[in-house]
Here is the input.
Amino acid sequence: MTTVFDPTFKPPVELLAVLSLLCPEVVRDVEQNWNAPVSEYARHLWRPVARPASGPAIAARSILLDILHQRLGLSMQPEEVGRALQEFDHRPVIQSGLHCLLLMDRITFDALLFAWLGAVENGLSAFVGFMGTTMTMETVGREGPGWLDVGDDKVNLFGMGRHKLCRKSACAAGPVTLNKRALEAVGDETDASRWLGTLLASQDKVFGTAADALTALNEDLVANWDRSGMALPVFIDERLAASAMARHLEYDGSLLCKLLIEPARRQRLEHALQEAASGPFGRFLPNATAYFWGIREERVRKLVLENGYLIEPDRQHGLSIPFDRPHLKQALLDGVLLPDLFLTFLVLAILPRVRVVGGLRQIGYVALFHSILLAALDEDAPEERDLATELQVRENAWGMQVIDEKSSVREQLAGLPAGALFPDLLRQYRLRTFAEMTDDLKLVRENARWRKIGRAFSI
Here is the structure.
């Protein structure tokens, strides 16, 4: 039985005041859709975005569309690619915050479902999801990309020993094959047909990396769960961002070349990064590496910038890459470097004017990334001044764990019609309001970072 909400029911003022300190654009979305169905909130986030107007933004959008064209061409027919790119150019939205996990993971499944709702409610043929892949194969005990969550147990998905899982990163570990024996062992479960057959169809495939395997398997699962094909997921990750970053580095006069390579500009950028990190919202910023991650021996490595080189700290025989345009570009193309979160969001979202939909930490650091870029711009340069004006409008939205079902994916799928799981869930989420789904913003109330912000500002 669906709960009926009073249309005059208002969101909690104190929580919205806290969110407004850093990302008022998120608060506007929440206020406008508080009593609306959660599917309507998803539709709202996938609304059109103003086209890039400044030189750097136009160039960044062109690069992103070209890189996406190559990615879409791997799984779509040319006419489908053209339609998907045209849709993305009008409604450029990326659902971020997805874990590099199979969709049997509850949080990952709920986030992808939310993105699917937004795409379907806007009649899109495809939607883009960013899968972070720099995480290790086992993050904590029996969790991470190397494990399949089947509700009441965990299956070692690729059959790697745990000492290997915790020492390899999803984007670099490979080649891999599925752990056929472990998967078949759960085949007598009554609801295994919802997902097991789809996985076992790939039991003899060899995947280049674990990330490639997870992307392909997730695409297969969605295709099986929604045979109508109303909106297809297009999974991207840091490797696509690396390709885009390499394209930015092709041009000596590009904004990112200036910010990274010219000493005075990089000093200004680093000052902006340090100012943001030491400010009242600094706890939101990820700062684990210097601009790029290194890839060596199937593992993502922290790098520091010293004497003009990116190096692994305290590693005599680790990576050492000259911090100049040709070497950085080639290392990105060779898969030796990946951009950090700051550069990833610059090339995929902030510069090309793409709305990014993520979690409660992400809405904080994306807002900070905007402010850092603004502080690093040279307003004496007309194109950068135009970009600064454009960046006054932030495309930043909350969509991770808005749908936050507490039951396992197996339990969520049980009893739903085969081949029409997502369409059936769509009908359900057209009846459940944003206020109901978020339990009066309970997730925000319980979030440690946002609670600390509220106490610091005495709100």
Remarks:
- Residues 1-5 have pLDDT under 50 and may be disordered.
- The longest strand covers residues 93-99.
- DSSP finds 22 helices and 13 strands in the chain.
- Residues 55-72 form the longest helix (18 residues).
